[in-house]
UniProtKB/TrEMBL annotation:
<dbReference type="GO" id="GO:0050354">
    <property type="term" value="F:triokinase activity"/>
</dbReference>
<dbReference type="InterPro" id="IPR050861">
    <property type="entry name" value="Dihydroxyacetone_Kinase"/>
</dbReference>
<dbReference type="InterPro" id="IPR004007">
    <property type="entry name" value="DhaL_dom"/>
</dbReference>
<keyword id="KW-0456">Lyase</keyword>
<feature type="compositionally biased region" description="Basic and acidic residues">
    <location>
        <begin position="373"/>
        <end position="391"/>
    </location>
</feature>
<feature type="domain" description="DhaK">
    <location>
        <begin position="1"/>
        <end position="305"/>
    </location>
</feature>
<dbReference type="GO" id="GO:0005524">
    <property type="term" value="F:ATP binding"/>
</dbReference>
<keyword id="KW-0170">Cobalt</keyword>
<keyword id="KW-0547">Nucleotide-binding</keyword>
<feature type="compositionally biased region" description="Basic and acidic residues">
    <location>
        <begin position="315"/>
        <end position="329"/>
    </location>
</feature>
<feature type="region of interest" description="Disordered">
    <location>
        <begin position="373"/>
        <end position="432"/>
    </location>
</feature>
<feature type="compositionally biased region" description="Low complexity">
    <location>
        <begin position="416"/>
        <end position="430"/>
    </location>
</feature>
<keyword id="KW-0808">Transferase</keyword>
<protein>
    <recommendedName>
        <fullName>Triokinase/FMN cyclase</fullName>
        <ecNumber>2.7.1.28</ecNumber>
        <ecNumber>2.7.1.29</ecNumber>
        <ecNumber>4.6.1.15</ecNumber>
    </recommendedName>
</protein>
<dbReference type="GO" id="GO:0019563">
    <property type="term" value="P:glycerol catabolic process"/>
</dbReference>
<comment type="subunit">
    <text>Homodimer. Interacts with IFIH1 (via the CARD domains), the interaction is inhibited by viral infection.</text>
</comment>
<dbReference type="GO" id="GO:0005829">
    <property type="term" value="C:cytosol"/>
</dbReference>
Length: 540
């Protein structure tokens, strides 16, 4: 944080399992800080807030969030951005999508892959005044100018992966299966399957297939390369390859580009953004001019960047305590009266239902990618479950009085990751100072609106929103005079369960499942199933 005062701070992050990304790129000449989630899960909103507050309190002249294009990352970083803007901080976000796998445009956009590392490097804020984001920050440019420059740079990249094996989230099975003589082209960094399965071939032939796919003009996500172009090449180990194998791939890539009369101005070979133990490689190409190349060459103290760091190595690192958030006033709920007992029972039942579904949700999620949906909901359930010495938040009584569950929202922001637990914070706002049933319909509306704004999904995209939106329609009955809470909730449960079942017949339009062929998704969406289960537990 020492160099943050008076300069734009650069923050990035995402799930763990991609080491050395992202913490390896903290240092002078690269990132100010990063926020890490659990394995393949987006960092919690509360953690992102702590990072932004840290650089803001250190005197940064604004904060730029560099985010890979995944639904959970966009959603959680976006919600943190909104919260900090409400506190008066100057925060902007750039979403990086450099995937060149898909021949047709996806609603979810291009995935953020290893090219994100080059954006980290090209936005360094300690250089001479070149016309790039980091140098603009050093020269005193506005945050808006930096955002425009970085957004332009992200369009000059392409990345494609190839692997001989899937990966396994700790405690889970491999995300897909490959025969001993097969390899997968166009897969992501969370274990999701690719766009084409091919027979094993020589390194030269495999790399040629990758370059041809990346530069094919009929491919909607291709990188336009022309004779005379200058590129930076990144040969990235996805986790399970040896240095010898990487060097063989790098040699083949250089030869393949030279045959296209493309100049490889720089070649970076190593582990930059991995996917646990996946035995694969990705190629990243970034079109560069002389100014951008000088940024890539600039010195940095980041330990994971492949140059000698101009700083001594130390076994001990100074730790900066996270700024403490001011305690919010939470409407108290007694654990001795009927309301407290009701809250205890409801919360215990909901948490028990989620814990009991952990394996089922993981199994459903495995078809769409990383297979951790059950783990994510179980983590939230364990954190929210009533414990000795802690009162549960109040819940609505059948006769119509209720209290805002802000304690639940704060806890979910701080502990859980991925998309689902981001709902409580926006939902809690309509419940402040209100004690009527329509407030709960307003809360559902607010939570869904926030998810759609940052997640990009809509009803019909085969996500948890299908169940949530179906339930929302039924919960509008709470706005009627004399509404019966249990009757309305019963209708909402039936609607959510029917919507969850209907997702098995949908083609995914958002989230990680959207990268998988609909022919492989023959079961309901795990998020939609979880929503229906929570509503059923509430009703019971």
């Amino acid at each position: 944080l020492e160099g943050s005062k008076g300069r734009v701070a650069l923050l990035s992050g995402g799930g763990s399992g991609h080491e050395p990304a992202h913490a390896g790129y903290i240092g002078k000449g690269m990132l100010t800080g990063v926020v890490a989630g659990t394995v393949f899960a987006s960092p919690a909103v509360g953690s992102i807030l702590a990072a932004i507050r840290a650089v803001t309190q250190a005197g940064a002249a604004g904060t730029l969030l560099i985010v890979k294009n995944y639904t959970g990352d966009r959603l959680n970083f976006g919600l943190a951005l909104e919260r900090m803007r409400a506190e008066g901080a100057d925060v902007q976000m750039v979403v990086v999508g450099d995937d060149s796998a898909f021949a047709t445009q996806k609603k979810a956009g291009r995935r953020g892959l290893c090219g994100t590392v080059l954006i980290h490097k090209a936005t360094l804020p300690q250089l001479c005044p070149l016309q790039v984001a980091g140098a603009l920050a050093e020269a005193g440019a506005s945050l808006e100018e930096i955002v425009r420059t970085v957004s332009s740079a992200t369009k000059a990249m392409g990345t494609l992966g190839l692997s001989l094996s899937p990966c396994s989230v700790p405690g889970s099975k491999p995300t897909f299966q490959l025969a001993h003589d097969e390899m997968e082209l166009g897969l992501g960094i969370h274990g999701e399957a690719g766009v084409r399965r091919m027979k094993v071939m020589s390194a030269d032939a495999a790399v040629e297939a990758m370059l041809a796919h990346m530069t094919d003009p009929s491919n909607a996500s291709h990188l336009p390369l022309h004779p005379g172009s200058s590129v930076v090449l990144v040969v990235n180990n996805l986790g399970g390859l040896s240095c010898l194998e990487l060097a063989i791939v790098a040699g083949a890539a250089v030869r393949g580009l030279e045959s296209r009369r493309v100049q490889v101005s720089r070649a970076l070979v190593g582990s930059f953004m991995t996917a646990l133990e996946m035995a694969g490689v990705s190629l990243t190409l970034m079109l560069v001019d002389e100014e951008l190349l000088r940024l890539i060459d600039a010195k940095t103290t980041a330990m994971a960047w492949p140059n000698l760091a101009a700083a001594p190595a130390r076994s001990q690192r100074e730790e900066v305590p996270a700024p403490k958030e001011e305690k919010e006033m939470v409407q108290p709920a007694t654990s001795t009266g009927p309301g407290g007992q009701r809250a205890q029972l409801v919360l215990e039942h909901v948490c028990s239902a989620l814990l009991g579904m952990e394996d089922k949700l993981n199994e459903l999620d495995r078809a769409a990618g990383d297979g951790d949906c059950g783990h994510t909901h179980a983590r939230a359930a364990r954190d929210l479950a009533p414990r000795k010495g802690r009162d549960p938040p109040a819940v609505p009584r059948a006769e119509g009085s209720l209290a805002a569950p802000r304690g639940v929202g704060t806890s979910a922001l701080g502990e859980a990751g991925a998309s689902a637990p981001a709902i409580p914070a926006p939902s809690a706002q309509p419940l402040r100072g209100r004690s009527d049933l329509p407030a709960w319909a307003d809360a559902m509306d607010a939570g869904i609106e926030a998810m759609q704004r940052y997640g990009g999904a809509a009803p019909g995209d085969r996500t948890m929103l299908d169940s949530l939106c179906a339930a929302r329609e039924a919960l509008q009955g709470l706005r009627a005079a004399g509404a019966n809470l249990l009757q309305v909730l019963s209708t909402a449960v039936q609607s959510a369960e029917a919507a969850a079942e209907a997702t098995k017949h949908m083609a995914a339009g958002a989230g990680r499942a959207s990268y998988i062929s609909s022919a492989r998704l023959l079961q309901p969406d795990p998020g939609a199933v979880a929503v229906a289960a929570v509503l059923r537990a509430l009703l019971e």
